[in-house]
Amino acid sequence: MNLYLRRTVRLADPRPEPTAADLSLPERLFIPLRQHSGPAAEAIVEPDQVVSEGELIGRPDPEEFESAPVHAPCPGKVVRLVNKPLIGGQTGPCVELEPTGPPSEVPGELPQSHHEPDPGQIFGRLAAAGVVASGIQALPVIRDMTPYDQDRFLDRPEGTEVKSIYTLIVSGVDREPGLAHQRHLAQANHPALSRGINAIHTLSGAAKTVVVGDSRGGEARSLAGLLDHGLRSAMTVDGGLYPNGLKPVLIKTVTGDETPLPLGDPREVGAFFVRLETAYWVGLAVALGRPQTGKWITVTSPDGRCRVMCVMLGTPVGHILENLGVSPAQGGKVIIGGMLSGYTIYDLQTPITKQMGGVVVLDPDQVVRFEPQPCIGCGLCARVCPTRLVPGMLSKYCEYGRFEAAEESNLAHCIECGLCAYVCPAKRPMVHYFRHAKEELLAGRTAQ
Ligand code: SF4
Ligand code: SF4
Is the pLDDT of residue 48 over 70? Predict the structure, then answer.
């Protein structure tokens, strides 16, 4: 399946405000035991147990290499294990924690390392720190790297074919309009970024590293600080044009190769892809042994303000909005992720997880209301689909429950970019259809 690199959408995309907001300590954190698309961790704490910052509270499944540990983001007392809403209409078990103090600040300088850790040490630190690549389909960062000596570090499922990684791609481009935390990190240029990129470079065994910046602002210039040895180069893309910031598109832009779908594993074209935020958490894990207990997010309020901040995992979305003075109005929307591919949530107690990148709040008059109409066969969706699908036909299969037919028409190749829904004159909820069909197909397989 060829990626169709047509630059199709430019949405209003305000500049992020440069200072991160200081949030008050929430009364409760609800820390999900499953914060990524891999299997859940198992709670190892009990009610009334006092935990310190960074303490392990959820142990990963030792049989599942896509499972990740969960740590306490701050000191606190465990209240109970409770189910809370997550994205995608699901609920999941969370450790309810009563914070007793704020998290420690990330130091502006990191201790110098006289001996760079070897690949085995890096692998061990990242596995223990639970660093997860950013994005809805996020998996532990170690999962996608071909280690220096893979048999030594990781049992891969039988039949998994991995190639050596030639190109490490580090993206400072935000995934879609409305998200700004990758750009913010590029400008901040914290030393953890450089340490993280070095560590990923070492562990992946990549021959070269390409740092990609957004050409719109000063971020590209600040990326120059990350290019500290000859194996790195930089390039810029216009992150304001969607879908330039999506992973398969960036991989093609950098390497010229298309990641074969539906697996979409960059190793099949000898690449490894991370966003700057992932490099940040990797840098902290390697330099300080600090687990990933936070998430960089972009909060966009109805007045168009766009604020970037790092929040503790498990912080309820409502607490963040309250601190920012944003009150979602009845009839409005709160979207997790971006405007084109995000998920609407219905409960402000939904906690922040490692998967989430954006919180967009819309007032009722900003929500476009429509009744989906039958497809009129105009073909606009097929013209914009980056994976060359025929979304109109696919959506009809999904709408009428013909999930197998949708699968045969390459439903799995859909990267849920939302472009087809954006251009559809019949206002068909295309991504909803596709996500529903994928879940039904998966559920059918699991039940067999
Ligand atoms: S969401 Fe639509 S445009 Fe995007 S990949 Fe899927 S079918 Fe194509
Ligand atoms: S854009 Fe909408 S109406 Fe046009 S073919 Fe695609 S699904 Fe049908």
Answer: yes
